[in-house]
Design goal:
Elements (H helix, E strand, L loop, with lengths): L6 E7 L3 H12 L6 E8 L6 H9 L4 E6 L4 H10 L5 E4 L4 E2 L4 H8 L7 E3 L2 E2 L6 H11 L1 H4 L19 E4 H7 L8 H11 L4 E3 L5 E3 L5 H21 L6 H22 L6 H18 L2 H31 L4 H10 L8
Parallel strand pairs: 1-2, 1-4, 2-3, 6-9, 7-10
Antiparallel strand pairs: 4-8, 5-10, 6-8
Helix pairs in contact: 5-11, 5-12, 9-12, 10-12, 11-12
Length: 341
């Protein structure tokens, strides 16, 4: 396409007016503006069209679409169908983009654009203490095994849609996102299995706001745990030892608590040592005693939420083979899901 931008940023939105305002402000501040923004409003009751229009009036190449509510994956696919760039870039609406993000990509891709890339996320100094604590637990090797931190890793790097991009060729060959939990892991898996390259660009990070309270955080990680079994059903052999660690931690914690109550209080010592390590790691990372203190219950919630979701889904779907979900997932695996582009 003549005069088409290199990047098409695609953001699905559902009732996130304030977040979209922060996102567009960060895009207006980019030192490299070789991109267009496509915001797809997925049936929101509080639309953000005025926010996008205001950013466009200030010079941002921004397009806004409103559609019926069908889910974030369908919204992303809708955006890709209307994008003109060579590479599709995905941010969540609760992300804020550092001013040199696209300049960083231009430098990283000077010798050629990868088929797919992803980057890490971090906490901005303006975020709440709870958001910063959650960010630490979501990126620490002590809680994730490096799956999300972009540093030491126990499995192959898997881009996530809070900070991910792939070329138009990838989209044309692999298709769009499936409407499912952990749709970005599914998409990354399909991209890799199609023979495309995937690159981690550590310097291209985003500021990710995370959940604003621990209750919502528990629900989020619980769903992550359940969706890992969905992915195992779709891709036999994809489940790695690192994915089972939170479930094993829940079982280990339960055993230690019972032993501590009925055998010896010394059995509580490993639990205390682990959470002391969480506190120390968060303190060194954030330089804040308050954030480090919040990181301890946040880590407990992350491990227990993910672990309980994983165990429940494993027992229901693998052991009992019960419920309609497993049939739907097998149909997806066979390519029969009508929502896959």
């Amino acid at each position: 396409m003549a005069n088409a931008p290199t990047y098409s940023i695609i953001v699905p939105v559902y009732n996130r007016v304030d977040e979209v305002r922060d996102l567009t402000e960060s895009l207006l501040a980019q030192t490299n503006r070789d991109f267009e923004l496509i915001v797809v409003e997925d049936g929101s009751t509080t639309p953000c069209g005025d926010v996008v229009a205001a950013a466009a009036a200030r010079g941002l190449d921004a397009k806004y679409f409103f559609k019926a509510n069908e889910g974030r994956s369908i919204a992303r696919n809708y955006g890709m169908e209307r994008a003109s760039g060579r590479m599709f870039v995905f941010f969540d609406s609760d992300c804020v983009i550092p001013p040199d993000y696209f300049a960083t990509l231009a430098a990283a891709f000077a010798d050629g654009m990868p088929d797919c890339y992803g980057g890490p996320d971090a906490a901005h100094e303006s975020f709440s203490d709870t958001q910063k604590a959650i960010n630490y637990t979501m990126t620490s090797f002590l809680t994730t095994g490096g799956i999300r931190g972009g540093k030491v890793r126990l499995e192959k790097f898997t881009p996530r849609t809070f900070n991910m991009g792939f070329t138009r060729e990838v989209y044309e060959r692999v298709g769009g996102f499936r409407e499912m939990f952990s749709e970005d892991i599914d998409m990354s898996t399909r991209i890799r299995r199609a023979g495309f390259s995937i690159e981690l660009v550590r310097a291209a990070y985003v500021w990710h706001k995370r959940r604003i309270d621990l209750r919502k955080f528990y629900r989020q990680v619980y769903v992550f745990g359940m969706s890992r079994i969905t992915l195992r059903l779709l891709y036999p052999g994809s489940l790695k030892a690192v994915h089972t660690l939170p479930a094993l931690a829940v079982a280990w914690l339960a055993v230690l608590v019972l032993l501590g109550i009925f055998v010896s209080p010394l059995c509580f010592l490993p639990i205390a040592v682990y959470f002391a390590a969480i506190f120390a790691g968060a303190l060194m990372s954030t330089k804040s005693v308050k954030i480090a203190a919040i990181a301890v219950p946040a880590a407990a919630i992350q491990l227990s939420g993910y672990g309980v979701g994983f165990i429940k889904a494993w027992f229901t779907k693998i052991v009992l083979r019960r419920g309609r979900d497993i049939e739907e997932e097998i149909n997806i695996r066979k390519g029969k899901n009508e929502r896959l582009s």
